[in-house]
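Database export, one record per block. Field names are fixed; values are copied verbatim from the stored entry.
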Amino acid sequence: MKSKVALIAALAFLAGCNTVAGVGDDISETARTVQTWF
């Protein structure tokens, strides 16, 4: 039972990291777009 909980927690952690990385990429892309305006 503990191994299943650990596996689910690890998958949730990795999914969260990937989501945060995706948001960071989106913000960086938007910042580059705005920077080209100036």
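Remark 1: Residues 11 and 20 are 14 Å apart (CA to CA).
Remark 2: Helices lie at 2-37.
End of record.
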